[in-house]
Amino acid sequence: MLERRIKYRANVALPGVAAFAKAAADVPCVVLNLSSRGACVAFAPDTEMPRVFELRVGKDPNSQTVRIVWRRTNTVGVAFLAPRVVPDVLPG
What we know:
It contains no helices and six strands. The chain has one domain: Thrombin, subunit H, CATH 2.40.10.430. The chain is mainly beta. The protein has a six-stranded antiparallel beta barrel.
């Protein structure tokens, strides 16, 4: 498979929360990999996701605006609209 990412993504399994503009409540998710430019995020089956939404990762109280760049069933690849400050290698 051709690797098109500019930055390495660390494999993680962090809890996340997505905020969709038209959703009544935040939507739980799992962040499967993460870099300063994007992430892979898994949602419960049949979750309808807008193209752009707010994503909070792990215990970080700040959310980031993300844009979906690819979709596969309940998993999406997202790009951060503003660069996220994360180390190249996450501890643990």
